[in-house]
Amino acid sequence: MSGAKTAHGAGHEASAGSILKQPKAVWAVAFASVVAFMGIGLVDPILPAIASDLKATPTETELLFTSYLVITGVAMFFTSWVSGRIGAKKTLLIGLAVIVVFATAAGLSGSVEEIIGFRAGWGLGNALFISTALATIVGAASGGTASAIILYEAALGLGLAVGPLLGGALGSWSWQGPFFGTAVLMAIGFIAIITLLKTPAQKPVPTKLSAPFRALGRPALAILAVTAVFYNFGFFVLLAYTPFALVPLGVSSAISLGFVFFGWGVAVALSSVWIAPILTARMRRTSVITTILPLLAIDLVLIAVFIHSVVAVIAGVVVGGLLLGIMNTVLTEAVMEATDLPRSVASSAYSGVRFLGGAVAPPVASLLAANIAEPAPFIAGAIAFVVATVIVVVGRARLAAVDGVVETELGEAEAIAVGDAA
User: Fold this and answer.
1) From CA 168, how far away is CA 329, in angstroms rounded?
2) Hey, which CATH number is domain 4-421, 3.40.1390.30, 1.20.1250.20, 3.30.830.10, 3.30.70.1450?
3) Whose C-alpha in 18, 65, 134, 309 is 20 to 30 A from the C-alpha of 126?
4) Rounded-to-integer distance, Cα 181 and Cα 420, Å
5) How many CA atoms, within 13 angstroms, populate the side-chain half-sphere of residue 382?
6) What is the mean pLDDT of the chain?
7) SS3 letters across the chain
8) Pairwise CA distance, residues 20 & 207, whole Å
9) pLDDT at residue 294 tops 50
10) What does the record list as coiled-coil region(s) (predicted)?
11) What is the per-residue pLDDT for 3?
């Protein structure tokens, strides 16, 4: 590209050695983030058990994801407004406290409807915590934005890995166990934040309630948010529906499902921390995105084709984890670099939209399987990944900042000359 330069590769090289050299406060927030993300995959291994013990249909059981993600997504739009008035530390603590209360209540539930309701409350706490945690880690970490985001994605990956394993282990005792386990771990995270995260001397900077909604008027952020809606649809087809696809293949116990999705989560963690930085050091972020999304579509199509092979489905889940880990890191980096908006506002706007895609996927996948065919949910997920790819390709001209492209004065002059000539 004439008259332009890229900067993202150098950023990764500079941050590679500093990711582990972080203040205690960053590690406290990262630990709590691991536990928060555990909540996403925690119920995966116990979905069949909940459906069986509480006499619920698969679609009703999948609503455990939907209520959680809908409230998380809607509440995300307001987290920057909250943290801008009471500060990041108080927002994090309130979020953790809300999760402790509703996770405990979910464990004490006697019906699937009660769990669905309490998972919605859990989603509110999750929104307050996750959006604020990302902004806090990026703001407090040493080594720059790229290093901080890799650390955040490592926490996400570790949480997604440990969540199903813990859910499977505790779920083998009772489906209630994972909920109580999360409450205990969140309480530990609460204590860690109180102890290690200092309240900054400066007062929080208030943001307008409308800031995240107006932020979506920025073309780059809007393109990434809509891309994430379809990406998250495919993501949660793989995460939330696959346990039901594995049950007829003989993988039905909580512990066996826990190990399958532990492998998936480990793959997410490894690729988000190690593979993603290697790719973005050599390719532009939009090129990574438009390469990985079609590969995810192919992965889901292969799962659909070999839906009756337990080896093929499990392999597809793990390979999917590797690809999803790359996408998670690159998309998060892209959002943080797409605009000059405050990170908390950009994070709230983007997260508020993307979680809605995940909320739709689980019940839709279950309905497709019940009314069309077993492979249908995975075909739908593959189509969603293709749509996400098309959105990025079409909107690529608006994503120059995402790629670290800085136009020089000479390049601008050349562009003007070309325009005048035309």
Assistant:
1) 26
2) 1.20.1250.20
3) 18
4) 65
5) 16
6) 82
7) CCCEEECHHHHHHHHCCCCCCCCHHHHHHHHHHHHHHHHHHCCHHHHHHHHHHCCCCHHHHHHHHHHHHHHHHHHHHHHHHHHHHHCHHHHHHHHHHHHHHHHHHHHCCCCHHHHHHHHHHHHHHHHHHHHHHHHHHHHHCCCHHHHHHHHHHHHHHHHHHHHHHHHHHHHCCCCCHHHHHHHHHHHHHHHHHHHHCCCCCCCCCCCCCCHHHHHCCCHHHHHHHHHHHHHHHHHHHHHHHHHHHHHHHCCCCHHHHHHHHHHHHHHHHHHHHHHHHHHHHHCCHHHHHHHHHHHHHHHHHHHHHCCCCHHHHHHHHHHHHHHHHHHHHHHHHHHHHHCCCCHHHHHHHHHHHHHHHHHHHHHHHHHHHHHCCCCHHHHHHHHHHHHHHHHHHHCHHHHCCCCCEEECHHHHHHHHHHHHHC
8) 32
9) yes
10) none
11) 43
Question: Quick one: which of 206, 233, 158 has its CA closest to 385?
Answer: 233
pLDDT of the residue at 223: 93
Q: In this predicted model, what pLDDT tens digit does every residue of 368-381 receive, in sequence order?
A: 999 999 999 999 99
Amino acid at position 238, single letter: L
Burial zone of 287 (CB within 10 Å; 0-12 exposed, 13-18 middle, 19+ buried): middle
Beta carbons within 8 Å of 97's beta carbon, 6+ residues apart? 125, 190
Amino acid at 115: I
User: Which residues are CB-neighbours of 317 under 8 A, at least 6 positions away?
Assistant: 238, 242, 260, 261, 263, 264, 303
- pLDDT tens-digit profile of 164-202? 888 888 877 888 888 888 888 888 888 888 887 776 645
Among 37-41, 156-160, 200-204, 415-419, top mean pLDDT goes to 156-160
CA angle 262/358/299 to nearest 5° reads 60
Q: Distance between CA 331 and CA 341 in Å, rounded?
A: 16
The two tokens of residue 207 are 């943001």
Tokens 């499977």 map to which residue?
168
Domain regions of the chain by residue span = 4-421
Q: How far is CA 39 from the centre of its chain?
A: 12
pLDDT in tens, 303-336: 999 999 999 999 999 999 999 999 988 998 888 7
**Dist. CA 220–CA 229, nearest whole Å:** 15
